[in-house]
């Protein structure tokens, strides 16, 4: 009796999207996510120690930059629809590289602010253009699966980039920080080259009398984007609220803070594609978002339990379980949201629609920290339950909103 084992190239192929445009897009995502991972880890110290800005100046500059980036998403997505998503994506990857490269030489707040604005706007527009490219190059039935591959690739790249950033922090020298930012700039040049390899997609022509930014008048889609933004408030739980909770309210050791990000990053990298397989249409997408709300409520309940007096090892175990449940919720949410955002957007307006739906992370990052810090750290375990209930309620509201949106356009709840 012979046993057939998978060949190495077969194992690799299961970890990568199909060859051609999907794989080129994934490799472009991998390239710049490595740079982004290093950027996120080192940027605060780089801007204060190398550029010479105060922490207040850094905070103000980045807030202004991401606010303008949030506003630029829809217009740049519309530009991708009208001028070609491929060309716009290449240009925005190059301008992002230029913005990061300029950080190497700017040494004043004014020039830092200009570079940060270019960086934030380019990043937001690049995301919309790449989503439009994906929608145009991949059959509708395959979009969520391919998007899951891309998300898995992003998380793997962020992990590698964070490791490189950690090395720079270990050396803590100007040369180390400059090297990291140079790598980030080069990563976007590589991404631009990879995007150039994909085929172009058809541009859309504006019909006379049609609103220039039709997505801004699409109320059902706007409601869905808002619901998604509320669900995305889980992000500060991993990066900010969770760590603060651990060090102020639990007996867990300090390394438990790092475990939240490790569980989240590795979980998405290894399981996002598998989770997304169950999402095939709007009905299964709605179900996936509802399961996300249940998982997030459970995660918040487990976080609340971690406050009870227990041994450091027990507290750390509870926190790892909470991180795993929150990561499951993230993957379920992402799988459903991708299908909803693609499936309810007109084929010739994917750029502006993806740009609008993609404002969710910016909203969550702007409003989430202040709101969640007040509720969770101010109210304690009850605050966690309140946040979990918000996630569950929002996820349950997604179903009616999807059906409302489907009634206003030529699709049904099963995506046909």
- What is the average of the pLDDT values? 88
Total number of domains: 2
Instruction: Tell me about the largest β-sheet.
Output: none
Give the strand content. under 5%
Please write the string of helix (H) and strand (E) elements.
Answer: HHHHHHHHHHHHHHH
> Would you state the CATH class of the largest domain?
Mainly Alpha
Report the count of strand segments: 0
Quick overview of this protein structure:
This protein has helices at residues 8-15, 21-50, 55-83, 85-102, 109-137, 143-171, 174-196, 219-231, 234-249, 255-276, 282-305, 312-343, 350-357, 360-379, 381-407.
Question: How would you portray this structure in words?
Answer:
With 416 residues, the chain is mostly helical. It has 15 helices and no strands. The protein has helices at 8-15, 21-50, 55-83, 85-102, 109-137, 143-171, 174-196, 219-231, 234-249, 255-276, 282-305, 312-343, 350-357, 360-379, 381-407. α2 (21-50) packs parallel to α6, α3 (55-83) packs antiparallel against α13 and α6 (143-171) packs antiparallel against α10 (255-276). It is globular and about 60 Å long.
Secondary-structure blueprint:
Layout: H1 8-15, H2 21-50, H3 55-83, H4 85-102, H5 109-137, H6 143-171, H7 174-196, H8 219-231, H9 234-249, H10 255-276, H11 282-305, H12 312-343, H13 350-357, H14 360-379, H15 381-407
Helix pairs in contact: 2-6, 2-7, 3-4, 3-5, 3-13, 4-5, 4-7, 5-13, 6-7, 6-10, 6-12, 8-14, 8-15, 9-10, 9-14, 10-12, 11-12, 11-15, 14-15
